[in-house]
Amino acid sequence: MRLVILGGGESGVGTAILGKKKGYEVFVSDFGKIKANYKEVLIINGIAWEEEKHTENLILNADVVMKSPGIPDKSPIVKKLIENGIPVLSEIEFAAPFTDATIIGITGSNGKTTTTMLTYHLLKSAGLNVGLGGNIGKSFAWQIVDNKYDLYVLELSSFQLDGIKNFKPHIAIITNISPDHLDRYEYKYENYIDAKFRITMNQTEEDYLIYDADDEAIAGWFKTHTTKAKLIPFSLTKTFSEGAYIKNNKMEISINQEEFTMDTEHIALEGKHNMKNAMAATSVAKLMQIRKSTIRESLSNFQGVEHRLEKVLKIQNVQYINDSKATNVNATFFALDSMNTPTVWIVGGVDKGNDYNELMSLVREKVKAIICLGVDNKKIIDVFGNVVDMMIEVSNMNDAVKMAQRLSEKGDTVLLSPACASFDLFESYEDRGKQFKQAVKNL
């Protein structure tokens, strides 16, 4: 069997190693450059590869193709594969049959990384033999070769879910759905919503779907679709006999006739959206029958995720916060919503079809100045130009942070929450966040 892998990054190389181990003839093809450390791994494992091109006769003879999530379906080589009837899968779909581990799959437009890390933290603190993968950390396929975990917590993007056929997590979480990546879904929101719900399409009555019952897109999907999985909703406003909710500043969870309660003030994560992330992760912990004392301790000592509302430093009584991971409007909504002081907001980057009007009431209430950090800031300026007193355009992070320091006073917050992708000026949202933190430290 010939396995061809498009993309020589973490998921591609991980899949190559697993494929080789399982007796496939493996070939890796990357249209860009393959990083030196990955090349070395391919060479050591005797896996054939090419970079900066896709040689058709080496690809179209595949029995199966694993495509990295970053490659769109409309790229010419993928179109040709589909025309030729060659199955194109994601890493998750290819790798899952090679493990007997219980899989917890987490998707959503926002909150999925925090929920994934918190779920992993809860299970690991309880002494379970658990791996972390998918969209974060080490490749899932690679871990199946190197480790023997009983459980995996996988963060799954819509792109990874697009490439599944039989993949089935025992526990699935949909944290929320808001318009994102619409450029990959023919600018149709319903296509993106359907992609997220693929996480539950193969689930049976033995499985669970944990979801945000306050979310309009999720509620809309349930009006016209069903899943066989047992439903466990969570909400900030409703209460359930089976599910999770907040009442009188307590998180209350009831699953399989078992109750769990905890004062929200003891939960390390702050903000309403993080209460939802905590309810989702705790629901998993309850399903895995983790002791209440362990859950309470883990929720109170969780450190949070880098680049997600990360407090960097307080300088002259101004708090600097790195929320570089906010790559869409919905994520920035959560960030602005959790600000309690006058805010200097650094925003901008590659716009993915954003509607900034959703932020209008929060910007009027909380934002004193806007610093636009992007190649094209026209849309942001058009929407907020008349709303804030100060609006400034900059083209690098150092200028953004220096300007923010100038515009802020004692008791203010400087918030980097771009609401956009980072690729116009930075390598990634991580690079953007690191540059912000460095610039703040240099003040």
Automatic annotation (TrEMBL):
Q: Which keywords, in A-to-Z order, does the entry hold?
A: ATP-binding, Cell cycle, Cell division, Cell shape, Cell wall biogenesis/degradation, Cytoplasm, Ligase, Nucleotide-binding, Peptidoglycan synthesis
For this UniProt entry, the molecular function terms from Gene Ontology, in alphabetical order, are: ATP binding; UDP-N-acetylmuramoylalanine-D-glutamate ligase activity
Record-linked InterPro entries: Mur-like_cat_sf, Mur_ligase_C, Mur_ligase_C_dom_sf, Mur_ligase_cen, MurD
The terms describing its cellular component in GO are: cytoplasm
Instruction: Indicate the enzyme's highest-level EC class.
Output: ligase
Q: Which reaction does it catalyse?
A: UDP-N-acetyl-alpha-D-muramoyl-L-alanine + D-glutamate + ATP = UDP-N-acetyl-alpha-D-muramoyl-L-alanyl-D-glutamate + ADP + phosphate + H(+)
Domain Mur ligase C-terminal span(s) in chain numbering: 307-420
Domain Mur ligase central, chain residue ranges per copy = 106-284
For this protein, the record's Gene3D superfamilies field holds: Mur ligase, C-terminal domain, Mur-like, catalytic domain, NAD(P)-binding Rossmann-like Domain
Instruction: For this entry, list what GO says about its biological process.
Output: cell division; cell wall organization; peptidoglycan biosynthetic process; regulation of cell shape
Q: Which EC number applies?
A: 6.3.2.9
User: Pfam families of this UniProt entry?
Assistant: Mur_ligase_C (PF02875), Mur_ligase_M (PF08245), MurD_N (PF21377)
| Family assignment from sequence similarity | Belongs to the MurCDEF family.
Protein name per Swiss-Prot or TrEMBL: UDP-N-acetylmuramoylalanine--D-glutamate ligase
Species the sequence originates in: Flavobacterium glaciei
Q: What is the lineage of its organism?
A: Bacteria, Pseudomonadati, Bacteroidota, Flavobacteriia, Flavobacteriales
